[in-house]
Please model this.
Amino acid sequence: MQSTFLAWLFRMPLIKRWALMYCVKPENIAEHSHQVAIIAHLLAETRNKLYDGTLDANKIAMIALYHDASETRFGDIVSPTKYANKEIAREFKHIETLAEKECVASLPKPFQATFSNIIVQQNIDPEIKKVIKAADILSAYLKAKDELNHHNNEFLHVKEKLDKKLEKLTQEMPEVDYFLKTFAQACTATVDKLSQ
Model:
């Protein structure tokens, strides 16, 4: 019997992010997951190299690649809807968990235990989840800055909300502060600027 696991995950490029907003540069969850994985890996390496961390950066990158796997089943639910109140947020988390478990169940049995610890978010170590969440926020922040650089004021309120989240994160996670000071500005530079 054929597994549908890859077929579902290969639909990630079809699922748009920021669905309720005008975007100068459209983004899908495949692109987003890739960026989150890169940022999460860099955050973990930063903690390990500069702040005496002991994180498995490669494991974190792998989990980050799959962190939105549930969206292949139900699409990307925008944050204002998903977090409208605690009850709605709880129900969406429940739906996401069911989707993650369905995704794992679509694999042949010998692979299910391994992927359950990568895809099902409730099985992920809280410290790993924290790093991936920080990377997720940084990815959204860079997206907002890029849209604003292209004069798309739809993202003004997004950046304002993310600024507050990042202010808190930089107090808790020095690697986030380091990322912002070392990498963030260049991420929205033009090719000509990068080449200088």
The chain has one domain: 5-189. DSSP finds eleven helices and no strands in the chain. The mean pLDDT is 94. The first helix runs from residue 5 to 9.
